[in-house]
Each structure stands twice: as structure tokens, then as C-alpha cells.
Amino acid sequence: MAMAFKMATTGMWVAEECKSSFMEMKWKKVHRYIVFKIDEKSRLVTVDKVGDAAQGYDDLTASLPCDDCRYAVFDFDFVTADNCRKSKIFFIAWAPTASRIRAKMLYATSKDGLRRALDGIHYEVQATDPTEMDFDIIKDRAK
What we know:
It is a single chain. By secondary structure, the chain is α/β, with parallel strands linked by helices. Helices cover 31% and strands 36% of the residues. It has a seven-stranded mixed sheet with strand order 1-2-4-3-5-6-7. The chain is globular, with a radius of gyration of 15 Å.
């Protein structure tokens, strides 16, 4: 088994692939977003989907299931009013209303452990439907 990092509060483990994919996104800019899921049987947080650098925020929102919880990180690039290029990383906790109560509880209690394992997140967004994580909300939070 690959190296994993334990989240003490829930007994969940974060797979090494989660940290390595995040570092590739953060430093090498090869990914635009990463979607994580919890495997309840193995008690492991793993990478579910990865969006390449050419994909955008709409691709991320389309990749999230409408009936199950997920975590996602999104690398938002923008230009400031001073004409400077900046990048901010958003952590998104996706818990749609149609998902199971057990899944919502599991994802809510495991969120902080994953955030600690992924060093360099700037903002957090919690959403239960797509309107709560609209692209305009992301833009407003970054500036």
C-alpha cells in the first residue's frame, strides 16, 4: 500500500497520491482541479478525478456527482487591477442535499484533516448545490 497520512479525528487516511497530485497542481500547474473521494471500506481519501491545465471551472462543476459528497481543489488564475497575474487555490467541500446523511457526516468530520495534508490552500467554499459555488463567488473571494 502506498504511504498514507492518518487523520486522527476520524480514523481516515489520506493517500499519498492526494498530496502528490496537489503538489503537481500547485507547483507544476499540470492540473486545473482535483476531485477527492472517501472510500468507506478502506477508510482512505483518494483521487477521484483530475482536470488538466486546459480545463476550467465548468469542467470541475460538471465532474461533481449530484447525489454523493466530494472534496475538490481548484487552481484559480486571474489578473489583478494592477495587471499582475495571480493564482489562488480553493478547497471545495461538496455535500449535495441528495447525498446520504452518513456520507455528509463522514465528509464533514474528515474535511479538516485533508485540508491540513494539502498545504497551500487559500480559500474554502462549502456547497450543497451549484449556486453556492458559482464562478462569480470564486472570483469575488479571490480578489
